[in-house]
């Protein structure tokens, strides 16, 4: 009887692990085409699609087709904290190509992409990275990077960040 209960618990743990992996794959697929841009100042009359076009122009990349582009709600409006911009692209290939182009821009200039590169006032750096599913976002704050600080491992997932 105890042996049966132990076998049942072991079986349930395996099923739970498989269900969690399946959920992670579904959540990752939902954001597989998403890109996050940090550092863009908020403005009352902002045109975020134009900002993305300027970033693409600076990186010498053709603007990819968009599903949507919007700004997340800002939790803090003081200390010059601006809410991130979420870019929903049509394909993950478009996202990868754009990230690659921005990385090549940064490598060629030997510095990060900044507001001045996209003809905006200021010298604040712009950060582009892949979107993570909700269950990995908290983990993403404590990830370890490799020597070049470009790719980070979070469990079995990789987070690419450029510049």
Report the major sheet: 4 strands, antiparallel
The overall strand count is 7
CATH superfamily of the domain at 31-131: L1 transposable element, RRM domain
Element pattern in H and E: HEHEEHEHEEE
Task: Determine the N-to-C terminus distance.
Answer: 59 Å
Coarse structural class: alpha+beta
Number of helical stretches of at least 4 residues: 4
Mean pLDDT: 78
Helical residue percent? Answer: 25-40%
Question: Rough shape?
Answer: elongated
Strand content: 15-25%
pLDDT < 50 stretches: 139-158
User: CATH class of the domain at 31-131, please?
Assistant: Alpha Beta
Q: Can you list the strand order of the major beta sheet?
A: 2-3-1-4
Query: What fold name stands as the CATH topology of the domain at 31-131?
Result: Alpha-Beta Plaits
The quaternary state of the protein chains shown equals single chain
| Computed CA radius of gyration, to the nearest angstrom | 20 Å
- The second-level CATH architecture of the domain at 31-131 is 2-Layer Sandwich
Describe the overall structure.
With 163 residues, this protein is α+β, with helices and mostly antiparallel strands. The chain has a domain of 101 residues: Alpha-Beta Plaits (2-Layer Sandwich), CATH 3.30.70.1820. Strands 2-3-1-4 form a 4-stranded antiparallel sheet, with helices on one face. It has a 3-stranded antiparallel sheet with strand order 5-6-7, covered by helices on one side. Strand 6 and strand 7 form a beta hairpin. The radius of gyration is 20 Å and the shape is elongated.
